Amino acid sequence: MNFVKITTSDQDIRWINLNLVSRVTIGTDESGVEVLVAVFADGSVDDSFRIRGTDDVNKAAILEIERALNHHCE
What we know:
Helix content: 10-25%
Shape: globular
Radius of gyration: 12 Å
Distance between the termini: 15 Å
């Protein structure tokens, strides 16, 4: 298993199993804030999460997931 640990600005700590992630989208919302949305293998919206890069902690979490996914794809 390949896990990545992230912490968001609301002190939510998650260990994400990259083997169970089916899709990740990184983009910007209508106000120009970076957003990451991840959907897990079952495809259920209930089993997805979203991080808005509204502060340095959330921006770091998005970057950590992006790095882990890039490494996982190698």
